[in-house]
């Protein structure tokens, strides 16, 4: 990344306008920001390069010099690191917008009494079979949720007493210097509260919560797919003031041995003997709801698809049903006995010149090849 141009670093073209440049920088800076990659020196270096690229390309004067002379042309301006005060304000507001609420840029510290030590929304994973996903079902799910510790009122502190955080001196943020810029991030000790327990609550060992067991019956809709999520309202973690989040169930669907799913369509491989393909046989094949009749074309080709409209999977959002696609996989005999060999020879002879299509096509190529050596 060090040797890439500023345009390549931000993954944009040279004719990108200011809006595109800013949008690309926001994306890259968010990806490599130290708050999200703590202790990773590689992403920290990439973050610095993204800053350098944006500072140059967002300033029309520097961008013009860079486009004409490259980085060398910026040496007299500080190697592209100098910016107008307006540029710094733009960069600062951008970071405040990007990272407000999860680790930097916010100047407003939340009241410690209102801050939760855990997310109220929670997720559990559930494995279901292929047919359960296709046709829907009802399941009982057991899970554990968090609820605020009553003796410490969710603070994690003995008797609920808090003192000023020593690491951030009560500011809720710590500051990191990156070259000529300084960034703030949420204090890792107090998590932005600006205060910390003077002594840990013995009831919850300073965690601020305890865990409870629970269960709920959920109705899984038809057509649910792998990694789809289902929200169960007000079954998540419980906060300090009694508010409760939602429970999200993420599904993993066990693949089927015969049917392969692609969205609302389902594929099935049909093994067909070569004589059936040649003759255009009629086969009975399985579907999701029963049996179907597959009429092969005379001379059906290997991997040829036959589509059955509306025989696929019901869309989970109610947008109709997909299709069943039968793919023909032609098989050939591995050995022939004398009788089979004789019958095949007679069959081939019965087609006459049609059974030797290569002769007419390749005769001219053979003649040309022979002329090369005359």
Write a structural description.
This protein is α+β, with helices and mostly antiparallel strands and 374 residues long. The protein has four domains: 6-99, DnaJ domain (Helix Hairpins, Orthogonal Bundle); 122-253, Chaperone, DNAj Protein, Chain A (Ribbon), CATH 2.10.230.10; 259-331, Urease metallochaperone UreE, N-terminal domain (HSP40/DNAj peptide-binding domain, Sandwich); 338-371, no CATH class. It has helices spanning 6-10, 18-32, 41-57, 60-69, 85-99, 130-135, 274-279, 338-350, 357-371, and strands at residues 122-128, 137-148, 162-164, 173-178, 181-186, 195-197, 209-220, 229-232, 247-253, 259-262, 265-273, 282-286, 291-295, 305-308, 324-331. A hairpin with a 2-residue loop joins strand 10 (259-262) and strand 11 (265-273). Helix 2 (18-32) packs antiparallel against helix 3. The longest helix has 17 residues, at 41-57.
- Tell me the name of the CATH homologous superfamily of the largest domain: Heat shock protein DnaJ, cysteine-rich domain
Separation of the first and last Cα atoms: 58 Å
Tally of separate domains: 4
What is the second-level CATH architecture of the largest domain? Ribbon
> Helix count, per DSSP?
9
Main sheet properties: 4 strands, mixed
Strand order of the largest sheet: 10-11-15-14
Low-confidence stretches: 78-89, 99-108
Q: Tell me how many strands there are.
A: 15
CATH C-level label of the largest domain:
Mainly Beta
Helix/strand structural class = alpha+beta
Order of helices and strands: HHHHHEHEEEEEEEEEEHEEEEHH
Question: pLDDT average, as an integer?
Answer: 84
Helix content: 25-40%
Please tell me what the overall shape is.
flat
Per CATH, what is the topology of the largest domain? Chaperone, DNAj Protein, Chain A
| Rg calculated over all Cα atoms | 34 Å
Tell me the strand percentage band.
25-35%
């Amino acid at each position: 990344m060090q040797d890439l141009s500023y345009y390549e670093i931000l993954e944009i073209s040279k004719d990108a306008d200011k809006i595109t440049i800013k949008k690309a920088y926001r994306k890259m800076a968010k990806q490599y920001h130290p708050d999200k990659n703590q202790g990773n020196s590689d992403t920290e270096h990439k973050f610095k390069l993204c800053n350098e690229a944006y500072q140059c390309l967002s300033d029309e004067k520097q961008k013009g010099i860079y486009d004409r002379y490259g980085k060398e042309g910026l040496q007299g301006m500080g190697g592209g690191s100098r910016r107008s005060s307006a540029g710094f304000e733009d960069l600062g507001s951008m970071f405040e917008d990007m990272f407000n609420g999860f680790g930097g840029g916010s100047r407003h510290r939340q009241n410690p009494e209102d801050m939760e030590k855990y997310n109220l929304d929670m997720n559990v994973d559930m494995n279901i079979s292929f047919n359960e996903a296709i046709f829907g079902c009802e399941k009982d799910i057991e899970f554990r949720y968090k609820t605020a510790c009553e003796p410490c009122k969710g603070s994690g502190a003995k008797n609920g007493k808090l003192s000023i955080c020593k690491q951030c001196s009560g500011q809720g943020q710590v500051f990191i210097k990156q070259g000529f810029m300084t960034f703030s991030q949420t204090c890792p000790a107090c998590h932005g509260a600006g205060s910390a327990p003077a002594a840990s609550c013995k009831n919850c060992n300073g965690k601020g919560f305890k865990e409870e067991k629970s269960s709920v019956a959920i109705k899984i809709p038809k057509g649910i797919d792998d990694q789809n999520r289902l929200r169960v309202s007000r079954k998540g973690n419980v906060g300090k003031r009694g508010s409760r989040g939602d429970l999200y169930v993420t599904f993993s669907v066990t693949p089927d041995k015969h049917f392969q799913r692609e969205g609302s369509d389902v594929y099935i491989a049909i093994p067909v003997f070569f004589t059936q393909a040649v003759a255009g046989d009629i086969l009975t094949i399985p579907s999701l709801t029963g049996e179907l009749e597959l009429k092969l074309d005379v001379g059906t080709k290997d991997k040829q698809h036959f589509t059955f409209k509306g025989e696929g999977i019901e869309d989970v959002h109610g947008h109709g049903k997909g299709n069943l696609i039968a793919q023909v996989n032609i098989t050939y005999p591995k050995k022939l006995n004398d009788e089979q060999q004789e019958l095949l020879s007679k069959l081939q002879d019965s087609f006459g010149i049609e059974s030797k299509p290569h002769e007419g096509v390749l005769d001219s190529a053979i003649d040309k090849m022979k002329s090369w050596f005359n």
